[in-house]
């Protein structure tokens, strides 16, 4: 069924043109549209509408402002490991003003901004990257002689929508960390319009891309929560979908970087992982389109809660998280099990014979992924039993 639908779409002239434009195969283009529709939680069949919109809808004009930040949002968007992501984003929007990417400078670039605002009055999307300093009349961040507050208000006035990209623009992020000498905050504190926020430091470029896909397809942005975050991306705690969750539930924790638990891929809660109090989809969509294992926890570092106001850059990195859903019960198993306890050597030898072959291949994969401790345990047991069996018999 899916195959048939794909075949029909693959021969659509608009899809063929879009795939050519993006230098993707038609199938990859359709796969992307299907994945975007699934990420947005759209009903089956919506991928055709998404594909049609991405292929044919006029690209919305985007004015992109930079304030107090590190430009990591733009960097993460452009330096995605997989070039397709960047290509897709730049294909779907008409980037009419962007200080980092513009070749022009000075008055020329200011003129381009005003021209785009005039030409697309009431229709352009304003994207803001970076926090807005308000202290001392906003003197800590000026572009072309105007303060960040002035610029954001001027550009927001005729914008069809405002998107705050990154935690800095969403709620102040890193620059707003105490003592916050420039008095900076998120965009929503200085304008009266609703702001769609895509927090993260940097934010996942796929969440921005998917938000734009929704806008192209339906002419409106996806549903957001009380903080303006698209629900498709920020309605679940990282902890709910974490690949180390089974270790958390079983009471297996890394207690120090590089210790046995850390090497085995145990839960990072005791190292300060903020996954239990951070809403984001990093564990589900990974990061930067670079494939398996590319998000902080999979790399062995606790989540620092970079998307979450009051957590990221606010709580010490190694402070344990507030568990929103439940606390580990006192009945959880011991954190470090003793190898081989409870099994006789004979039983271990039988186990070695039975699981040895399976665990050999399985454990290698699991070790590479750093995900499973079970297979690793079985491999160690099998090796110990084999060594024991090969030992010369002791003299009596
Ligand atoms: Fe940097 Fe963006 Fe962090 Fe902030 O991302 S990655 S400091 S969220 O505004 O450039
Ligand atoms: Fe994953 Fe962190 Fe939750 Fe552990 S505490 S399961 S590492 S999100
Ligand atoms: Fe940030 Fe945590 Fe995701 S640190 S990138 S919210 S895993």
From TrEMBL:
It comes from Azospira inquinata. GO terms for biological process: anaerobic respiration. Residues 234-312 form the Cytochrome-c3 hydrogenase C-terminal domain. Keywords: Signal. NCBIfam families: hydA, TAT_signal_seq. One of its GO terms (cellular component) is [Ni-Fe] hydrogenase complex. InterPro entries: Cytochrome-c3_hydrogenase_C, NADH_UbQ_OxRdtase-like_20kDa, NiFe_hydrogenase_ssu, TAT_signal, TAT_signal_bac_arc. Belongs to the [NiFe]/[NiFeSe] hydrogenase small subunit family. Residues 70-214 form the NADH:ubiquinone oxidoreductase-like 20kDa subunit domain. Signal peptide: none annotated. This is hydrogenase (acceptor). Heterodimer of a large and a small subunit. GO terms for molecular function: electron transfer activity; ferredoxin hydrogenase activity; hydrogenase (acceptor) activity; iron-sulfur cluster binding. Its EC number is 1.12.99.6. Its cofactor is [4Fe-4S] cluster. It catalyses: H2 + A = AH2. It is found in: Cell envelope.
């Amino acid at each position: 069924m899916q195959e048939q639908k794909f075949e029909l779409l693959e021969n659509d002239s608009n899809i063929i043109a879009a795939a050519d434009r993006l230098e993707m195969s038609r199938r990859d283009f359709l796969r992307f549209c299907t994945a975007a529709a699934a990420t947005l939680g759209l009903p089956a069949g919506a991928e055709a509408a998404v594909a049609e919109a991405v292929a044919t809808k006029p690209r919305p004009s985007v004015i992109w402002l930079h304030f107090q930040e590190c430009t990591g949002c733009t960097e993460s968007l452009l330096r995605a490991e997989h070039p397709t992501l960047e290509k897709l984003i730049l294909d779907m929007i008409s980037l009419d003003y962007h200080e980092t990417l513009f070749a022009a400078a000075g008055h020329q670039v200011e003129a381009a901004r005003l021209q785009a605002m005039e030409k697309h009055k009431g229709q352009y999307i304003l994207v803001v990257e970076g926090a807005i300093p308000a202290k001392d009349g906003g003197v800590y961040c000026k572009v072309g002689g105007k303060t960040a507050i002035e610029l954001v208000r001027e550009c927001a006035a005729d914008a069809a929508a405002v998107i705050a990209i990154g935690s800095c623009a969403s709620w102040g992020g890193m620059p707003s960390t105490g003592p916050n000498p420039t008095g900076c905050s998120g965009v929503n504190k200085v304008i009266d319009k609703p702001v769609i926020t895509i927090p993260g430091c940097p934010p996942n470029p796929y969440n921005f891309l998917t938000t734009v896909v929704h806008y192209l397809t339906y002419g409106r942005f996806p549903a957001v929560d009380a903080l303006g975050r698209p629900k498709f991306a920020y309605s679940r705690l990282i902890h709910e979908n974490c690949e180390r969750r089974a270790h958390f539930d079983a009471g297996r924790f890394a207690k120090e970087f590089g210790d046995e638990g850390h090497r085995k891929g145990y839960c990072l809660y005791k190292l300060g992982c903020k996954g239990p109090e951070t809403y984001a989809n990093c564990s589900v969509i990974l990061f930067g389109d670079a494939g398996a294992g590319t998000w902080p926890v999979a790399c062995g570092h606790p989540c620092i809660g970079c998307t979450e106001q009051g957590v990221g850059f606010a709580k010490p990195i190694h402070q344990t998280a507030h568990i929103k859903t439940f606390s580990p019960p006192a009945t959880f198993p011991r954190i470090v099990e003793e190898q081989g306890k409870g099994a006789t050597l004979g039983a271990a030898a039988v186990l070695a014979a039975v699981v040895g072959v399976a665990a050999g291949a399985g454990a290698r994969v699991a070790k590479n992924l750093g995900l499973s401790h079970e297979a690793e345990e079985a491999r160690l047991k099998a090796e110990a039993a084999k060594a024991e069996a090969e030992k010369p018999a002791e003299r009596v």
